[in-house]
Amino acid sequence: LAVSVFREDDDAYDIWVNTVGVPASRVIRLDEEDNFWAAGPTGPCGPCSEIYYDYAPQSPLSADSAIDLNDDTRFVEIYNLVFMQYNRSAAGDLTPLKTKCIDTGLGLERLCAVVQHAPSNFDTDLFRPLLAEVEALTAVAYPSATPAQQVSFKVIADHARATAHLAADGVRPSNIGRGYVLRRLVRRMVRHARMLGVTEPIMGRLPEVAMVMAAAAGYGEMEEQRAVVLRELAAEEGRFRATLDRGEVKLAEVIERAAAGKVISGDDAFELYDTYGFPLELTEEAAAESGLAIDRAGFEACMASQRERARAARSSVDVTANAALAELGRAAGPTQFLGYAQLKVPGAVVVGVVDRESGEALEVAEEGQDVAVLLARTPFYAEGGGQVGDRGALKGIDAGLHLEVTDVRSVDGAWAHMGEISSGTVRVGQKVSAEVDAWSRGRIRAHHTATHLLQAALKKVLVDLEISQAGSLVNAERLRFDFSASRAPTAAELVQVEELINSWIGEDHPTEVASMSLEDAQAAGAVAMFGEKYDKSAVRVVNVPGVSMELCGGTHVGRTSEIGAFKIVSETGIAAGVRRIEALCGLAIMPYLTIRDNAVRELCGMLKTRPEELCSRVGSLQDELRSSTKESAALRSEIASAKSLALLASAESISSTSVIISTLDGVDADGLKSAAESLLARLGDDGAVLLASAADGKVALVAAFGAAAQKRGLNAGKVVGAAAKMCGGGGGGKPGFAQAGGRDASKLEEALAAAKELVVSKLAKE
User: Fold this and answer.
1) What angle do CA 299, 300, 306 make, to 5 degrees?
2) Which residues in the chain come in under a pLDDT of 70?
């Protein structure tokens, strides 16, 4: 073994050398970059000591030479010990933590390699079954594979484990968050399999090997989820394969085009991502194989809108404030929640106060400060299980203090009440009246119980599907329920679900809450959310007898009639195999109905009809519009064809090919298509037509080339694509016909001239 310590950590150095007995020559002092660990820019941090395994201990070291722990062909880190002793403020200052600890981390795969005397993690029994499956797919033996092939073997084996565990944990492929990570992993596996010559599907085989291994190691849920996981992963692979062939052709074109400048443009990288489903990392990997770089700045510019949406949806976490709250919470102990039975606790003791802006723990906070207050007891529900935190107020027992609570969150068992002090002061040790907003809590309870009824109704109506919860959000305004399903519910099925829930509401079923062991709850038929961690000794079961039984820590109505009514307002797909239903309950339905009622009244007045006849009236108008649109299109096509006949006289003969390159003002893209086809029919097989029009600053281009012209080297897709690019756009098509558009009409004349030069140069070679 060899050991590293932080350069100033004499205590660790002394223990290793004088207590443990590691030779001083094998204890190396390193700087902050290697041996000072931090959770982030702010928060807990401290020096660390790392243990390395020496794969060549017999190699001699001269008296004046030091061990080079960066030589990863010889030294592999297997263990890290972090001495968590400081808190770093936003200003960069280090202050000692009140409660210090040692955080340890051991690399399982690396230790396995050491114990099994294997040269790498992939040569251990943790990976050999997966590599053997890749060998069976490729008919290539891993030990005799080329270095590049071995990289692909390793990527596939590693990602097989990752995809299996992610999918079994309820993650579904998508373009955001964990779903995007899963999608990238699946697509990278498929691409590396292609590089090894595998054309058959792989996601039904390799993740299954990983799941069998995991189940044998004690991950029982892997066996339970195997069929669902393999179906989801196979479906994602199928979607990727549908575009992979086209994408690889496009990627080859992009790489060839970028060879001279050694950089793939951001626009090209984004097109591969947006149109062909290639994650940027796949494009970067392929580019690196060809010695190319990616214009990441350009790609990020193209992704700006997506990043903005993601940023808006992401909640920011102040590490410093959370660290202070966690430390206070550990000292005070868990908050006692009384909110199941009462909405007001008149003598709640303040056990901690943190300034949310600075992250500093306070003894007293004053009017205007935005703080997080820890209470020994509280009626406020802390955000969890899909239910938002309660709103309400903390008030002084003898008046004075008023703090509007806007959110409540749990930090290591301590419940932090967030809000701004509008009057008075709050201090540690003070007794306050903690009061939950009853109106808000009532609507939250209704929406939460309705979410349970929704899951039960979906399972009852969609009997052909394996419905499982994939997430939820419950607040005072609405409920949102995400669930895994291989297809979308039909409109008729959603009506059935809605009617069934409203019937349960009208039947006034009681809601019963009980605490029992996890084993007893599961035996009774309680539904647990997959991936959630439960205390096996005691879980809270919410039961609507004969309707629904779930493990849940949230707040609920006493009887279903308290929900009032239930209305589904939307059903959409949010990711592959994941659907989302949004619904309203009770009085929350009224604004929704009022808006739609007003819209119907207004439409009926405009269309001079009654509400029950509105759909048929709109249908008639749509039929009339379609008929008029067809007539208009036919007239435009005739006008375009008539205009185009005048261009026949301008046809040029270039190396015996008749060529027309011109503009047709006032003609849209469909008209250009008709005109180009009409002209080509008159010019014959050895004809070439390129037409363009401009309107409102935008450009439309159409090219039609005859069979003989194509044989002479003309390609409509390439000609029209080059012209469109000069006009700030893009497009293309087949060698015989192509369409494109552009955003800069001022460049049209120049683009047509360049297109003519391209046509002339191609024909001149013949």
Assistant:
1) 115
2) 60-65, 175-176, 245, 277, 279, 305-323, 398-399, 530-532, 576, 766
CA 738 to each of CA 118, 260, 306: distance values in angstroms, whole numbers, following the listed order: 57, 27, 30
Q: Is 520 helix (H, G, I), strand (E, B) or coil?
A: helix
Count CB-CB contacts under 10 A for residue 312: 7
Which residue bears the tokens 């399999």? Answer: 193
Tokens linked to 319: 């590490």
pLDDT digits (tens, 9 = 90+) for 362-421: 899 998 899 999 999 999 999 998 999 999 999 998 668 999 999 999 887 889 999 999
DSSP letter at 696 equals T
Q: Give the residue from 650, 673, 693, 641 showing the smallest Cα distance to 737.
A: 673
Q: Which amino acid is at 649?
A: A
Distances (CA, A) of 378 to 346, 375, 405, 453: 9, 6, 12, 28
Query: Side-chain half-sphere of 141: how many Cα atoms within 13 Å?
Result: 2
At 316 the pLDDT is 37
Rg of the chain over Cα atoms, rounded to whole angstroms, equals 34
The tens digit of pLDDT for each residue in 81-111 reads 999 999 888 888 889 988 889 988 898 899 9
Helix (H) or strand (E) holding 394, with range, is strand 392-396
Q: What is the DSSP string of 172-206?
A: ---SSHHHHHHHHHHHHHHHHHHHTT--S--TTTH
Give the pLDDT score at 284. Answer: 85
Name the residue among 583, 503, 582, 509 with its Cα closest to residue 549. Answer: 509
Nearest partner of 469 among 384, 556, 531, 547, judged by Cα: 531
4 forms bridges with which residues in the sheet?
28, 50
**Which DSSP helix (H) or strand (E) runs through 367?**
none
Q: What is residue 210's three-state secondary structure?
A: helix
Cα 566 to the chain's mean position, in Å?
30
Alpha-carbon gap, residue 156 to 140, rounded angstroms: 14
pTM, entire model: 0.53
327: Cα separation from own chain's centroid: 32
Contacts for 634 with CB less than 8 Å, ≥ 6 apart: none
In degrees to the nearest 10, what's the CA dihedral of 343, 349, 355, 356?
-30
**pLDDT in the model for residue 60:** 66
**Cβ(690)–Cβ(664) under 8 Å?**
no
Cα separation of 538 and 519, whole Å? Answer: 9
Q: Name the token pair of 718.
A: 């390439």
To 5 degrees, how large is the angle CA 622–CA 626–CA 630?
Answer: 170
Give me the pLDDT at residue 58, please: 76
Alpha helix segments (H runs only) across 687-747? 707-711, 716-726
Dist. CA 124–CA 153, nearest whole Å: 14
| HEC sequence for 657-688 | EEEEEEECCCCCHHHHHHHHHHHHHHHCCCEE
CA angle 637, 642, 648 (to 5 degrees): 120
The per-residue pLDDT for 180 is 82
CB atoms < 10 A from the CB of 466, how many?
13
The label of the residue with tokens 């439960």 reads 534
Of 563, 423, 437, 447, the residue nearest 506 (C-alpha): 563
Q: How many CB atoms lie within 10 A of CB 245?
A: 11
**For 636, how many CA atoms within 13 A lie in the half-sphere containing its CB?**
16
In whole angstroms, give the CA distance from residue 748 to residue 647.
18
Q: Which amino acid is residue 142, in one-letter code?
A: Y
Q: Which pLDDT score is estimated for 665?
A: 81
CA atoms within 13 A on the CB side of 550: 23
Find out whether 569 and 581 touch, Cβ atoms under 8 Å: no
